[in-house]
Input
Amino acid sequence: MLKIERQNLIDQELRKNGYVLVPELSEMLNCSEETVRRDLREMETLGKLVRTHGGAYLVEKYDKGYPIELRKSYLQHTKESMAAVAVSEIQENDMVMLDASTTCLAIAVAILQKNLNITLITNSLEICNLFSDVNSNVNLVGVGGVFRRRTLSFADPNTVEALRHYYADKAFISCPKLSAEHGLSDNHISEANVRRQMLQSAQTRILVVDHTKFEGTANHLFDGLESVDLVITDQRVPQDFEAFAARRQIRIEYAQD
Output
């Protein structure tokens, strides 16, 4: 197949789904993954897409966030390792909040596997679906609002208002970017507001982020680092972050691969 034919088919998949994955394109186009990556690099140079780990996507207006399908495929083993640490913080009969990140989806899977007896509050359709067809000890509470297909989540002022009616034992959130200087940041204002409210509506506030989240800042700042009690990550954090955490008595726990 000629390069122009491959790239036209890639463009069609992007317009149909909003994203593409390298392994799936390799199979569909009957070519190597390296050939697909080369095509994606050329198409990014032409402004037709944005490459990311394992694929590419079309940027939505006012939203730089990755589609959930791409995020689910990235660093999956790392997310599972961090989820194991996160679940060790949960006690029987806790009320727990989870945001709509794929990191919190991994925590939900770990909760299900451990068969914990808890109340779980979430704005994630993926997490709700996870518990919908199985017998578990989880009392599931889904907070509604405007549905975002890009993240398979509910996020608007109604979601935030619903969260204000609860006070959880623990809230677990992730976020696209964080730094000692700017704090926690998100690509979408509605998701940022939901995460802020989850932190405000919990006794113990836990941030679960892999090492790539410590690079740069997203567009919507929603809270300072002092708003969390515990950070769970996979690699040594930057020195300025470690110093800030020590001053504010924020615990840092590292997942083991």
Notes: DSSP finds ten helices and 15 strands in the chain. The chain has two domains: 3-59, 73-254. The longest strand covers residues 202-208.
